[in-house]
Structure formats: C-alpha cells, structure tokens
Amino acid sequence: MFKNYLKIALRGFGRHKLFTFINVVGLSIGISAAVVIYLIVHFDFTFDKFHKDGDRIYRVVTNYTYSGDAGFNSGVCGPMGGAVKTQVTGIDVVAPFFTLGQPDVFIPGNTDVPVRFKNQENIVLADGNYFKIFEYKWLAGSVQQALDAPNQVVLTSDQAKKYFPTLSYDQMIGKIVTYDTLKTTVTGIVQTIKENTDFNFHDFISYSTNQANKTIADQLQLTKWGATNSESQLFVKLSPKTTTAHIEKQINDIFSKNYKERAGVSHSYHLQPLSDMHFNENYYNFFDDRIASKTTLYGLLAIASFLLLLGCINFVNLTTAQATQRAKEIGIRKTMGSSRKQLILQFLSETFFITLVAVIISIVLAPLILKLFADFISPGISANLLGQRDLILFLVVLTVVVSLLSGFYPAILLSGYNPIMVLKNQSVSNSSKSRNAYLRKFLTITQFIIAQFFIMATILVSKQIYYVMHKDMGFKKDAILIISAPWKNLTIKKNKLLIDYIRSIPQVSLAGLGGPPPSEDGSNSTESTYRDGKKEVKIELDEKYGDENYINVYHIKLLAGRNLRASDSTSGFLINETYARLINPQHPLEAVGKQIEKFNGDKTMQVIGVVGDFNQMSLHESITPLAILEGNQTYNSARLHVALKPETPGGNEWKTAIAQMGTYWKQIYPDDDFDYKFFDDNIAKFYVSEQHTATLLAWATGLSIFISCLGLLGLAIYTTNQRTKEIGVRKVLGASVAQIVTLLSTEMVSLILIAFVVITPIAWWAMNKWMQSFADRTNISWWIFVLSGAGMIITAVFVSSFQTVKAAIANPVKSLRSE
Amino acid sequence: MLSLQHISKFYQAGGTRNFVINDISLEVEAGEFISIMGPSGSGKSTLLNIIGMLDEPSSGYHYFAGETVHQLKDKQRSALYKKFIGFVFQAYHLIDELTVYENIETPLIYQDFKSAERKAMVADMLDRFQIVGKKDLFPAQLSGGQQQLVGIARALIAGPKLLLADEPTGNLNSKQGEEIMQLFKKLNKEDGVTIIQVTHSEKNAEYGSRIINLLDGRIESSKQL
Questions:
Q1: Which of A49, A594, A630, A690 is the most interior residue, by most CB within 10 Å?
Q2: Number of folded domains in chain A?
Q3: Start-end of H helices in A72-156
Q4: Residue A207 falls within a domain, yes or no?
Q5: With contacts defined as CB-CB under 8 Å, which chain A residues touch B102?
Q6: CB contacts, 8 Å: A349 with chain B
Q7: Last residue of a domain, one of A252, A276, A300
Q8: What is the pLDDT of residues A284-328, one digit of tens each?
Q9: How far is B162 from chain A (nearest CA, A)?
Q10: Mean per-residue pLDDT over chain A, rounded
Q11: Which residue of A has its CA nearest to B56?
C-alpha cells in the first residue's frame, strides 16, 4: 500500500511540477535554517555537559558592591582555596587553580637556541584535585603523583605533540619545558578533551610550584584576603545531597572572619553551577573565552521557527488550493472502499516524501550555510552527519513534525470530501470553498505578518547601525593607527624612542603617547570629589591618559583652558564638558582652575582645561564625567597614537608608512610582533554583535519574503484558475486588462494591509525594546513602517502579476468554451 | 438480496421539504438486471447512491444481504459495500495518475489482499477483458470505451454480488455502448452478478430483466421483461 502511495505521490509531483517545486523550496529553506540554527544552539548548550557528576561541580565566584554599583568577579581572593579545603564541610573535592598570563614557552632542542612558543594561553597552575573533579584520560603518568612536587607539568596530548612532535607520550616524561624563566619537568600527558568545553587548558604546572618560586607565589597572593583576582579560580565538587546555600554560608563566614570590609564595599561568595559558565555574561571564563548569549540563541530559535512555519504555511496553502483537483481521486478512492483513515495516511505520506526531499536538500545545504556565516559561527560546529547522533535524531524528529504540521490539515480536509458531490458534478461544488478560503487567507496573513516583521526589524537595525557608525562621537576616528607596545617588554624610554622614529616618517602627521584611545570597550575610573562651599560633587571619574599630542591626534576640541604639559602629571588634568557641567551647571567653562579633591584617594588636582564631550565607550553607553591626564607611568604610556596624512587616491602611502613603522619596531622590540590597529576598525568592532544581528535579519527577511512570494504565486495561480470563467465573462463585457489585474490583486493587497495593521504595533514595541540597549539611538521613524508595508505590497503585486496578467490577457473565448 | 421500504430523501428548503426520493419501496432479487429510467431530476442517481450506500436516505428502511443497513454504523456499512458492491460511472472516474493495471488493483488494496493475490486477480481480469496490452497505459491514453471497460473491470475485480452503474454508456458512442451492454448481459447471465443500471436509453434499458420508471422521486411504473 505504501508503494502505491509513493507511486501516486511521485506521479502527482510530476504533474504539478511548479507547486511541488514551491513546496520543496519553501520547506527546504525553513528546514535548512532549522538545521543550521539547531547546530549553533546545540553546540552552545552541550558545553561541558560530559563531566562526570557535572551537576555537583561549582565554581566559587565573588560578587561585590562598590559604592552602590554591583560587580562580578569569576575568581576568589588568594587564600580562599586553602581555607575552603580545610574549613568547609560538605565538599568532596576542592580544586583551586591559577591562570597564567601568556608566558613564552621554551623547549630545549638539539641546537643551543631553544624552540620558542610566544605568548601562550591556557596555561594554569593546578594540583591533582583538578583532575579529580574533571576526569581526563591519562596517556602517560598518573593523577596520583603527577602534580605533587613543585616545577612539574602535565600536558594535554595536542600540546605535547606541538612541543615534542617526534616523541611518544612515554618518552616525553622527564623532558624540560620552560615558561618564561620557570623550568619544569613533564610528569604526565592527558588526552585533549574532544567534547565542547570551556576548559581548554593544555599546560598544567603543579600548584605547589609557588613554594619554590617567589614570582609565582607573589602572583598567587595567598595571604591577601582583600585582593580578588579572576586568575585565582576555585572549583568545588559538592558531596551528594549538600545544598549550595549550606556551602555558600560557610565560605562567606570564612571571609568575614578573616577580612574586615571597607566602608561602601561588600563582598559575597556564590557557587556558580558548571552549566551556567558558558552563558553567564557577568563572569569571564579563564582566557576571555566566548560567553554564549542565551538571548541570542533563543532569538535564533525564533527565527528558525518562523522560517519553518512559513514553509509549512506555504504547503498548507498550496495543498488546500489544489484540493479541488484531487477531489475526483478522493471520491473514486472512497467508492473503491478506502476508509478516511487510509486517505489521511496517503496524504500524510505524500507530505512526508516532500519533507524528506527538503530535509535531504537541507543536509546538503547546511555545510554551505555554515561556511557563509563562518564569521560568527564557532568553527567547532559541523554539519557532518557522521558521529552526530543528536543531529540525526533531530532530523528525524524535524521530518516527522514538519510532515504533520504541514500535512495534517490538508489531509483532514481532502479526506473529508463527500464522494457523491465529487462524482456527480464532476467538479467540486463551491460549498466547502468559503470555509477553507478563510483559513488560507488567515495563513497568508500570518506569512505577511512574519515577513513584514523581519523587514521592519532589518530596516531599523540597519538604520541604528548606520547611525552609530556615522555619528560624530566627538573625535576623529579615521586615519589613526594605534600601536600597542608589548606589555612584557615595554618601557617609557623605548616607547619615546619609537615614537620619535615614527614621527620622522613623512606620512605621519602627528603622533602621541598615551593609554587607551578616546573610545574603548572598557574603562578605568576612580572616585573624586569637588567641593564648592556647601556643594559637594562626589563621583566616579573616568580616566584617560595621553601626552600633549593626545587630544590633537583625535581632534578632541579644547573648549577652555589649555592643553596638557609634561609637568601636569601630578597636579592638573583636562576634564570633559559633562564633568564641567556637574561642577558649574550654568557656566561649565568656568570649571577651569577649580580644584578636584580626593582624586585617586588622596591627590588634589587642578582643572587646567575643558574639552568637548566625546563617547568614551560604544553608543550603548552614555557619556560620563572624564578626566584626561598626562601619563607618566609605563602602563598609561603603553600605546602610540599615530595620525596619518590622507592617502592619495589609489596610492599605498599608508602601507609603506606602516611597513616603515614595523622596521623601527623591530629595532626597539626585536622579540615581539608589530601590533597595530586602525582606530576606526576598533570602533566598528563595538557593534560586531549588532552587525551580526543585521546580517542574520537581512537573511531572515530575504528568505521570508522569498518563501511568502512563492506561496503568493501559488495562490495567484489558484485564484486565477478558479476565476477563469469570471475573468472571461468580465472581458466579454468589456473589462480592460488593467481592470482585471486590479480585480485580481485587490484581495492580496488587502491581506497585506491587514497583516501590516496587526504587525506594526508589535514591531514597534519589539524595536523599542531592542533600542533600549543603546544609550544613544536613532528614531523609530514612521517611514520604516511605511517603507516595509509599501515594499511588501509592491513585491507581492509584482510577483503575482506574472500570473494575473497572463490570466487577464487570455482570450475569453477559450475560457468560456471550456465551461 | 436487497429491500428498500418507504425510502425518502428530501432537502429542507425554508418551510417546505423538497423530495428527491419520495416513499419508494423496492425489492431486488439476486440475479436480477434492473434498468432505472426517468427524466432528469427524477431521482435516479440518488436512488442508485442510496442503494450503493454512498448516500443516506432521510427516512425509511434499507436491508441488504441480510443486514439492516439503516441501523449500521459508517464503518460497518463501508465494510458491507466494500464486500458486495461495485460501481461503474458515466464519466469512468479512473484515477489519472494510475495506470490501467493500478486502477484495477486499487479496490483490492483497500480490501487488504496480499500482493501476490492481487497480481493474479488483476492479471485474470485483464485477460478476461482482453486489455492485457493496455495495462501500463494511463487513462488519458485510452478511448472512452476502453476507459469504461477498465472502469467495469475495476468494479468487478473484488467479485461483487451487486454492480451499480450510473449511465455507464452515457459518454460513449452507440457501438461502444452496445459492447458494454453486451458485457453487462453476459456478466448477469453467466456470472450471476446482480446489476442495477441507470440509463436514458430505451434500447439499453431493454438489456435488463426489469425496467423501473421514476418520476419526481416516485416509482411511476415497473415492467418485468
């Protein structure tokens, strides 16, 4: 029987090629989107799910408030690990570890010069307990003694192969690996984790090394209760049946016993579940690993469901529109003795075939789509079916669900035909038409609603991105290079030498030394107080550092007073207009000369000038009070800000200049790679996630319009077929082609208008919500909505005109004769 | 074999009832060949549909093969007609997407015959109607007479006791029509299939053993030949 269904389905597809094509394309798009998004979402949701007893593993994190502001730190203070180990009950394993900052790794080779691996990440100090919480497969050595003594190191298999490409794992034991100056001996090799994980560490140096090495001990700060450091990580595995509250209380008690809080500051310790680590944006993971946003993932899921829904709606629409053509077959089958159940099964299996074809197409397309979006899809995601049991399962479920979703209603409708009606009149009477026409109209409206929402959202997001990228942020951002001196080797003296060299390059118009550029993701601030008689302005003051060229490189306007001088470093600074207004709301420029107290705790500084406001961070944040100081320490003179002269069209002067800078760099920092960025690129990076949103939305929009138009075309074909006789009669009575086309398009346009009315308020609300994340935002203009509605109508009329015009110019004699 | 007693079929239109079938009683014995005649709108087809259980009467009693049809549930009724009744239509009503072979096979599928059995039965039927050479053609590739032949073959495939034919020759030329009628007669005589046909043609009606004339939903006359 199934073979019979398959046969008739295939022949039917052959007969209705266009409808079948539309159905397959519509479903393929929806299913492809679903597959790709499933891969993305599945990838992030399977992070660190494989650890044994993962539900009992927690990270101890520090939450604090600092003069009312909440802060979060993924680490703990140095002594906490040891204290928890000895004083807290209800914990099976306590594993403190410490993430080391990018040491250079040296492997002694055959020659005198050791092989060098620069700035290696994912190197930690850990003890055996780490491997008791997170179980690794040991390829050489064993967890019992590998990290007991100082100066031992355990490597993961991948890293070990990198260091010792020619040796077997057993041969690696006893080899020397040096981290900057710390010399260690390999005592174990563990298998690199193949599953999705944030624990990407590949060198584990024994924690006890701190007992033998003062530099390491200083970094660990094992006696300072007041210093919380995100490099000091503390993981615990609770005993079964212990509550987190019970553990948290004990940890907080330990802290308050050992440390007296300063006024306005408070710390509290919490247990962060392992499953939360990949998603919680409050806490960083080790080496700034990517934190996945659940909001984004859910947004993606919504997009996938919508596209899938559109495909299904298309299917339902077209199938029910075609229903009359199959009525005869249904009538015959019923008189042949088919039960309704058998007919439903037949139609469902037809839907199943179509869906299956669409799924197969999607499997082929998925890798291409992943490549297309490679910019913001993790490279770990693969659409390869092999070895992805979950993916195969998902595809099976998807096929069944989509088949049911798109096939169920048409099957019920079709199988419900009364055989006598069908067979007696040879064509279906119109009695059941109106009801099912309402449903089709409803479904079409739903499609237009989804499509228009995507259009509106795309326009708005693009508008906002254009706005933030082109808004005058208060400084010049193009043709400026930022060169970051290597923090390990830099000195002010070397930087000054380098900048003198750079100034000698003819293409350089101006260069200055300083800290971070005017606008950056991240800021430094300090408390400061201004007192004027009874009035006291106590605020968090942002700090930027630069020399006398800093504000000129960036064209920051000096509104009053004078620029910085080298002698100002301890006595005066520039402030921005926002701060000046706090000091003197009526005459902000008169803030020049005023004294600011308690800057950085104890210093008193004089305002020597007021500069125009500029955005210190992305436009997500508003402008806050700011001071610009003369940098006199290494860390705030670490960057070179270089303004370039405009390039001649088609010229490559900048390239030459940058190459020249690279040469100078090598003279001064021979061991480090030349590290430069264009400032405008940095600014653009503020909005990477918005750019991704825009790209995704543009795709969703394009696809949803495309699917909807396919469905529309199908419906237009159906309507014009249904109305052939009416069109013929009207033409005989003298209607023009234009009038006929208008007649046929009116219904469609009215459906779009209804969709427009429904979606506009919802879209407005959603956009408003999205815009809240920007402190500085563009308007949600009325024309966004008008443009989207009008665009939809024009597209729809255009697409359906292929059919309507054809119907309108057809010779009426033909259509009337056939009746 | 079949008994209709006081069968009526009407549609409520405003306050009045429009009778399509008005109090018809009819007995049909096994082996009869009945022709139902009458002008358009006299209720011929409706009567045939009621007999074939495709349509339900508004009132009256309906007995078939010892079963009380008017008391049966849908499922039982459909099982009953699947087993005993075959249909032939004026417009043939073959499934366009299926070949001759598959069209004939379809009723067997719905009656859960095994594949091998179906093969044998269809081959037999093709042979009997001398259409073996056409078995892989689609309905559109056949003439009207050939299509109706397939229609009849399909109606007979499951071995029905009663064959219902609604103007089986209505779309055919006179020569084709005659062939079909000869076939009916043969089926009736040699295979003992009870046949009830609706027809407009006096000539065709006379192939039967009894002619029933309908007018306005009533039996106007009945003539045993």
A1: A630
A2: 3
A3: 80-87, 128-133
A4: yes
A5: 4, 7
A6: none
A7: A276
A8: 777 767 777 788 788 888 888 888 888 888 888 888 777 777 777
A9: 14
A10: 83
A11: A420
